[in-house]
Design brief:
The protein is an alpha+beta fold. 43% of the residues lie in helices and 17% in strands. The protein has 32 helices and 24 strands. The strands form five sheets. Strands 1, 2, 3, 4, 5, 6, 7, 8 and 11 form a nine-stranded antiparallel β-sheet that branches. Strands 16-18-15-19-20-14-21-22-23 form a nine-stranded mixed β-sheet, with helices on both faces. Strands 9-10 form a two-stranded antiparallel sheet. β12 (410-417) and β13 (423-429) form a beta hairpin. The termini are far apart.
């Protein structure tokens, strides 16, 4: 072609698409390709999402391995205020973020675990990041809550397990009900698990996980709530406009409106009425958002519950009880189980696919709360602290062991009725039940409970002494002790003589054939007289001196008789009288004991005794004359070889029943002698290594009578006997009538305090020890055989708890042997060396001559002392 043609060719217009059109066509093509191959895009997105989820799970599991657990143990008087609980909630929320920066949100949480498995009423644990341990260990509750590091819990598998997740239903912005602290908000939960039985594998656990609210999630939730509120207002406005138009149309078509138009001549056609629809009300943010309006102290929570048992149906029933317990917190917003119910079936955390998510969160501690579970910390007040003083805790087998027959390590206390109506015999551990005090009106069941405890202890092989001034306890206990293996250990010291042929035991407080220390014997008898007669070093120094000197000589005489192989020639307490008033007997006694007495004692008889006039001895001779005038006490105390030996009874685990005749002056003196001898015998056990001392229990019925005879002695028992493995169980109608030293020592050291019904004035002394929980009114209204008591188990106080006193005919019905009571009576009297009263009186009358003959013969066989050693004794 020529130049012209070439020119035409180069100047032709360019019709190729521009870059914008190319880009647009490419995008359209890509969209078209994605539309045709949507499954590839969806797969890629799913793959990315899955990979991200796997990474998040891995990081969360790694972060959750660095967690710790703390267990909180409240004291019985734990009573926090609202401010303390709120501060604890702030600590928990702050501690939830104490994790590495790379930890996912689902791992940043603190978990409160409320657990019950039948061993304890409720275990309160906190699990959170290891970095928050210092923050969580120091609580605002002060010394009333003990915090210690807890070990992981390994649960054995149970046959039946049910799971549930709770979410907030109702108005999403409304708070939960404000539950008062008295009674404790945890009480419904504790009541729901109060009848758990560990032997059946019962378990119930509530886990409340707290997570600080993420800002983006809170803003998104607020946007949703505001939009929902606006839509609701628009719907309300549209509904109101619709009703207004309907009302206007109805009015225009009504007969009244038509008649009005005919009368006035005005056109009443419907088209003339103008209806103005109402404008939607402005949505206020604070009103629409409610508790979500403020950022302060707003958290997300996850509430999981698991119940298990080895018995079918018990786990489901427990979950229903816990669901009812959470209803207490409900108001316009409430806790409800997540899932749907289809007839008899419920689709929830126990079914696929929710079950797998529940298990992961339960085992790892992940927090994936539902969208609605936003709460302010004050709404969780009831769950942010352990049980308080206002919480009524059930008594479980782990708190108070069940009584086992013939188990020497357990001491029967009574019958406890469990929340599900079962009756359980409960006990305390013998080794830590040191002193017991039972108070209440006559006939309330104090003695019956003590007898049941004593009988159970006797059948377990334990030794005891039951001191009963009224003797009613012996015939009551005899049918249950009438067993062949017990008869050889039982001794009856019955001082209630009914005639000359009555069988009675004997006791010589000054006897030395048992190997007692001379000074201990002298001190015990002297202190007994001093306590009952009111002597002390300020008011009666001369009487104390004279009696001590006389007893020193008589004990030396008895030592000489035992050394000479003639223990039947020992002097008794009634030989104090001839020692003071008979110069010949005094000369013979001092001459025969010249080798036993020290120089100071002999000098006193030479120089001081002759200066006394006969009337100086009346204060000593008068009580001895009363003892001698009573045939019972004369026969009991007038024998040289008394069989009663309290130290031997303790060392040989004997079962001794001592029944004084009454509470007159003579009886009180005899009771004082017995009590002081017990104190001496127990203290003498210091010569036995502690681990070889056999436990022994003393039961004192009618403490008022006993302490009236020997107040300081009884008080010393409650203070000292623990060291020698001897325990005391005291019973009294009125704690206020006990002498002050006895009352103070008893309440200070009592392992068990128990009270039956009585007057409010009498009961107040006991309820004051319990901080009036229960009150005196509650205790005073108890039925017969019902007790409130506080007990000591594993070093901590249990109760006060309501216990039914055991009745012998029910508790030991299988052990009753009424046909063997006669044989038991004979065996008990034989073990006590009982003899007819007239024979004992005759032997007591002849003892003066036996002792005099021994002194004469013993003096003749020993080297005479110088005249200067005896010349002042006449």
């Amino acid at each position: 072609m020529g130049p012209a043609a070439s020119h035409l060719t180069h100047s032709a217009p360019d019709h190729s698409p521009g870059p914008v059109l190319t880009l647009m066509s490419g995008l359209v093509g890509a969209v078209d390709w994605l539309w045709d191959h949507w499954y590839l895009a969806a797969g890629a997105i799913a793959l990315l999402f899955g990979a991200a989820e796997m990474v998040m799970r891995h990081l969360a599991e790694r972060a959750l391995t660095q967690r710790m657990a703390l267990e909180l143990l409240p004291s019985p008087h734990f009573e926090p205020g609202l401010e303390e609980i709120f501060r604890r909630g702030v600590q928990l929320a702050r501690a939830s973020t104490a994790m590495p920066w790379w930890a996912p949100r689902r791992a940043k949480s603190v978990q409160i675990r409320l657990r019950a498995d039948g061993s304890t009423p409720l275990r309160y644990r906190i699990e959170g990041p290891a970095g928050g341990e210092r923050l969580l260990s120091i609580t605002p509750f002060g010394p009333h809550v003990t915090v210690h590091r807890a070990r992981p819990i390994a649960d054995p598998p149970r046959r039946h397990v049910v799971r549930a997740e709770f979410l907030l239903r109702g108005k999403p912005t409304a708070p939960l009900r404000e539950v008062p602290l008295d009674p404790d908000p945890l009480q419904p939960l504790i009541d729901a698990v109060s009848d758990l039985r560990a032997e059946l594998g019962d378990l119930a656990e509530v886990r409340l996980t707290i997570q600080r609210a993420p800002k983006w999630a809170l803003r998104a939730r607020r946007v949703q709530l505001l939009q929902a509120a606006r839509r609701q207002e628009h719907r309300e406005a549209q509904r109101a406009a619709r009703w207004m138009r309907q009302d206007a149309a109805g009015m225009d078509d009504s007969l009244v409106w038509t008649l009005k138009g005919l009368i006035t001549g005005k056109d009443g056609s419907p088209g003339r009425r103008l209806v103005m629809p109402p404008a939607p009300r402005r949505v206020e943010a604070e009103e629409a958002l409610g508790k979500l309006a403020d950022d302060d102290h707003l958290v997300r929570v996850q509430l999981l519950v698991l119940c298990a048992s080895n018995i079918e149906g018990r786990a489901e029933a427990r979950l229903a009880q816990l669901q009812a317990a959470f209803d207490v917190f409900g108001g316009r917003s409430r806790w409800a189980m997540r899932g749907w119910r289809l007839g008899p079936w419920r689709l929830g955390a126990d079914q696929w696919p929710s079950r797998r998510s529940f298990e992961r969160r339960w085992q790892l501690g992940l927090c994936r709360p539902p969208r609605a579970n936003w709460v302010q910390l004050p709404e969780l007040t009831g769950l942010l602290k352990p049980p308080t003083v206002h919480c009524r805790l059930p008594l479980l087998a782990g708190d108070l062991p069940s009584f086992e027959y013939a188990n020497p390590e357990l001491l029967l206390q009574g019958i406890y009725r469990t929340p599900d109506g079962r009756r359980r015999l409960v006990a305390t551990y013998t080794a830590e039940t040191l002193f017991e005090c039972a108070v209440g009106k006559a006939g309330g069941g104090k003695t019956e409970r003590a007898l049941a405890q004593a009988i159970g202890y006797a059948h377990a092989g334990g030794g005891l002494l039951f001191l009963d001034p009224h003797r009613d306890s012996w015939p009551r206990a005899a049918p249950f002790l009438a067993h062949d293996h017990l008869m050889r250990r039982i001794a009856l010291i019955d001082l209630n003589a009914a005639g000359p042929a009555s069988l009675m035991s004997s006791w010589n407080p000054l006897a030395m054939h048992h190997g007692a220390a001379a000074h201990d014997v002298v001190e015990a008898v002297t202190d007994a007289f001093a306590s009952i007669l009111g002597w002390d070093d300020a008011t009666a120094p001369r009487a104390l001196t004279i009696l001590t000197s006389c007893l020193t000589v008589l004990v030396a005489v008895n030592q000489a008789a035992c050394q000479a192989g003639r223990p039947k020639d020992q002097a008794t307490i009634f030989h104090v009288r001839p020692l003071l008033s008979d110069a010949g007997f005094r000369h013979a006694a001092l001459a025969a004991t010249a080798h036993q007495l020290d120089e100071e004692s002999r000098s006193w008889w030479r120089t001081v005794f002759p200066t006394f006039t006969p009337d100086a001895f009346a204060v000593i001779l008068n009580p001895l004359a009363r003892l001698a005038a009573n045939p019972t006490t004369r026969a009991f105390l007038g024998q040289a070889l008394g069989v009663y030996n309290s130290r031997a009874a303790m060392d040989n685990a004997m079962i001794v029943w001592v029944c004084p005749a009454g509470n007159g002056p003579t009886d009180r003196l005899l009771t004082a002698l017995i009590a002081r001898d017990l104190l001496r015998a127990v203290r003498s056990r210091r010569d036995i290594p502690e681990h070889q001392r056999r436990p022994f229990r003393l039961y004192f019925d009618e403490l008022i009578t006993l302490t009236g005879a020997a107040p300081e002695t009884i008080a010393s028992m409650f203070e000292d006997f623990r060291k020698y493995r001897v325990s005391v169980h005291g019973m009294t109608q009125l704690l206020g009538r006990l002498p002050t030293p006895v009352r103070m020592s008893l309440t200070q050291n009592a392992s068990t305090l128990a009270s039956t019904a009585g007057s409010k004035t009498a009961i107040t002394a006991i309820t004051a020890e319990w901080a009036d929980q229960p009150s005196a009114d509650e205790v005073a209204a108890l039925d017969r055989y019902e007790h409130y008591m506080s007990l000591t188990v594993h070093g901590r106080r249990i109760g006060p708890v309501r216990i039914t006193g055991p009745h012998l005919d029910d508790v030991f019905a299988d052990q009753a042997r009424p046909g063997n009571v006669t044989a038991l009576q004979h065996a008990a009297q034989a073990n006590a060396g009982a003899a007819p009263l007239d024979e004992l009186l005759a032997a007591a009358a002849a003892q003066q001559g036996r002792v005099t003959n021994f002194l004469t013969q013993h003096t003749a066989t020993t080297r005479p002392r110088l005249n200067k050693d005896t010349q002042g004794y006449q």
